[in-house]
Amino acid sequence: MEGISRRGALAAGGLLLAPHAVWAAEEPVVETTEGRYRGRSAGGVQVFKGIRYGATTAGAGRFRPPRPAETFAGVRDAFDYGDQAPQVRSALADPGPMTEDCLRINVWTPAATAGAKRPVLLWFHGGGFEAGSGSAGIYDGTNMARRGDVVVATINHRLNVFGHCDVSGLLGAGFERSGNVGYLDLVAAMRWVRANIAAFGGDPANVMIYGQSGGGRKVSLCFAGADAEGLFAKGVVQSGSHLLIQTPEQSQALTSALLKALDIAPANARALLDVPQEALTAAQRGVVAQAGYRFEPVLDGASFTAHPFVPGAPRRTAQVPMMLGTTRTELSNQLGRDPAVYTMDDAGLNARLRSFLPAADVDAAVAAFKAANPKASPTELFFLITSWRTYILNATLMAEGRDALNGRRNPTWMYQVTWVSPAEGGRRFSQHTLDLPFMFDNVAKAPHLTGPESEATHAMTEAMAGAWLAFARTGDPNHKGLPAWPTYDAAQRRVMLFDTPPRTVADPFRDERLFMARYPPVRATARSE
């Protein structure tokens, strides 16, 4: 049946009625606040790709907060992923176009039937704050939408210099929040979901935001930022507990270096708005390489008036349920790309650790971790120690901060993926991103991470996809395929270990935790993304 027109959706008094879905036999059509989109049915799921949740950010929109997408007449096809954010082309990007018209959302739903009120899973992609897109194959929401009778959505948003270039002191009015427009894009996406997801069969009052690596960092920001308050009901921080953000001094130093690299005088900083996308991408790459840190969210006094989780967890989301965790050897992904790491001896271990720890602490760190893991090789110890310093410590501090704020009513669950993948002969152990194929139910798309499909990968999927779906539905990850998983508290520190079989253990890494407690939290670095 032909859907009603946008004009026909106007009620008396000129108010737009709630968006709703209409469809033909094979191609569902959904009415959004901007206009009608036609999706496709595949694998028992209806899919809508590349929908705009915001206007293009090119030209006058560069470095400014996102604006609503323009309305349109007729029906637009939503068959293909939209443009991804400008970035250096890498394995984290898809082969498609990169433009500043990148505020796009993709939706998978069992059926776009208004009023179904299914839980909504809104995914923020990984890649730090500088790379990636929501169209990576492993993020495909088909299996989860079908398995859990839920609505899954992924987004693209501004990254790197386009999302976090602080020109507030140079360009003034309209650019006060330029250092955080990438974060404001996330907020715009959540607002679009609130306004439109019911038409896709979702419940706008039951939205779970979740993300891994850089995506987890984005979820961390949303728990802290006033702009995001009330736009989500729960969140999952996967391998990306982001406790500290950039200081104004750091962000301004990057901007100054960028102007110098482009031969633009500070008095003429408005010329940044006209620099071609490719030239700006290339210039920021050189600036970041020289500075040793990246364009990322900043303590601007507007979007953020304090660090997200330092000195403590944010009060505004204290009672919003959170699930957070890591993999056991996160950095075996990044550091394991060097073949020499697999043949190192004790001396090589000590030498490499000096890049992560004070030289005076290296011997003590090795002794503490070897005592806790007596069968570990120098390679495994290297991955364990560096993973604790860059990922697991931050996750522990985040969980402790929520416990200190909430006490007995702490809706926080902590996990660690300890299953050792047989891929590459098992030499990566439990690497960064190993959680993705299981909690997305996409093992078939990631044999490089999990090895071939097996009884073990099936069991891991049942445990993890089940937990993510239970959490999305109820705000509690417990389900019949897991042992009882209590909330986290600093007294017992109960953690779910995702393995075959899964286990709940109190303070499972006590010795490692106590050793790392001497260090402050870390900000993301290029080697920890």
Q: Roughly how many Å is the radius of gyration? A: 23 Å
Strand content: 5-15%
Q: Unreliable segments (pLDDT under 50, ≥5 consecutive)?
A: 1-18, 20-25
The assigned structural class equals alpha/beta
The spatial strand order of the largest sheet comes to: 4-5-7-9-8-10-11-12-13-14-15
Helix and strand sequence: EEEEEEEEHEHHHEHEHHEHHHEHHHEEH
Helix fraction by DSSP (H/I, runs of at least 4): 25-40%
Largest sheet: 11 strands, mixed
Counted beta strands: 15
Key features of this structure:
15 strands; globular; 529 residues
List the helices and strands and how they pair.
Layout: E1 21-23, E2 28-31, E3 36-38, E4 40-42, E5 45-52, E6 75-77, E7 104-109, E8 118-124, H1 142-148, E9 151-155, H2 160-164, H3 168-171, H4 181-196, E10 202-212, H5 214-224, E11 234-238, H6 248-261, H7 277-291, E12 322-327, H8 346-353, H9 362-372, H10 378-406, E13 412-417, H11 436-439, H12 447-450, H13 455-474, E14 494-498, E15 503-506, H14 510-516
Parallel strand pairs: 3-6, 8-9, 8-10, 10-11, 11-12, 12-13, 13-14
Antiparallel strand pairs: 1-2, 2-3, 4-5, 5-7, 7-9, 14-15
Helix pairs in contact: 6-7, 8-10, 9-14
